[in-house]
Amino acid sequence: MTDIVDQQTRSRMMSGIRGKNTKPELALRRALHARGFRFRLHSGKVHGRPDLVLPKHRAVVFVHGCFWHRHKGCRYATVPATRPEFWRAKFDANVARDRTVRTTLLDGGWRVATVWECALRKPDQVAASAELLSTWLLSDEDQIEIGAEV
């Protein structure tokens, strides 16, 4: 299958995709801040540069895009028809890196939360995800994963 846009346009479109301050991340940050939580953003002092670092709770939060980080069973975790072998290798590397970062953080005494993009698409989902995350932050649990089933 061929791409519907030329290579230069596709390149420009892909370069516009950012890893920080995405809409889902901003929505979750607003909801957590409104609940009284304070955090650092993209701290280079913490392995993996988590999206949110809450030192008071010894916790980090990653807001993962379902497409890039391969949310299992999610309808947004598709594989492009163009150059599928390239994309599978890229996705496999992302998943392996995520696994390594999570393990390193847990071994270092951090608590790790992963919030998937599909759980932050609608305002009611953002509120429900923030509520689950708030409860987790005040608990003793090591990890939590929040997806669209919220």
From TrEMBL:
The keyword Transcription does not apply. Keywords: DNA damage, DNA repair, Endonuclease, Hydrolase, Nuclease. GO terms for molecular function: endonuclease activity. Its EC number is 3.1.-.-. Belongs to the vsr family. May nick specific sequences that contain T:G mispairs resulting from m5C-deamination. This is Very short patch repair endonuclease. It comes from Rhodobacter calidifons.
